[in-house]
Amino acid sequence: MIVGVGTDLCDVRRIAATLERRGERFADKVLGPHEIEVFRQRLAKVELRGIRYLATRFAAKEAFSKAIGRGMVWPMTWRACEVVKATSGQPHIRLHGELATWFEARGWQAHVSVTDESDYASAFVVVEQRPLDAKDCKP
Ligand SMILES: CC(C)(COP(=O)(O)OP(=O)(O)OC[C@H]1O[C@@H](n2cnc3c(N)ncnc32)[C@H](O)[C@@H]1OP(=O)(O)O)[C@@H](O)C(=O)NCCC(=O)NCCS
Questions:
Q1: I need a labelling partner for 67 at 20 to 30 A (CA). Which of 38, 100, 111, 114 fits?
Q2: Distance from C-alpha of 121 to C-alpha of 53, rounded to nearest angstrom
Q3: Could you tell which of 2, 65, 124 is best to mutate to test the pocket of ligand 1, judged by most ligand atoms within 8 Å of the CB?
Q4: What's the structural domain count of the chain?
């Protein structure tokens, strides 16, 4: 059963301007521990790739906050919601701390997709109720 959907469109130029103004403190505020490493590597190689990475992650976190029906309000925080990638390239949501506890207590699972093109980055998140395990079904 689908619990919620969330979407966000992010202007890459706005992210670039904020990064210019506030420096890496901005990325530190938004990105989780795994994401910040990827961001630094990409930024060091090709600056625009780093900025686009930050923009897609920004969009994914906003989209997730909408899919859970809270917005950027506790237990949702920027750094507690990360987007990590499987070896296939498919992105996945990884949660930390109170947000992870809150989310798992509800038996929810999240699916995310991100994209970017020219000046915009976008993300879409679906949250569903995890199917019950067979062992949870009492006769
Ligand atoms: C949800 C949130 C992240 C949206 O971010 P934004 O960059 O300002 O706006 P966006 O254009 O990306 O999205 C706006 C849409 O988010 C949706 N939205 C707002 N609150 C939402 C919530 N709690 N859950 C899911 N979706 C929400 C609405 O559909 C809104 O569009 P609408 O006003 O035309 O219906 C942000 O507004 C937020 O954190 N809200 C919760 C805290 C808050 O301010 N609450 C005020 C009421 S007490």
A1: 38
A2: 9
A3: 65
A4: 1
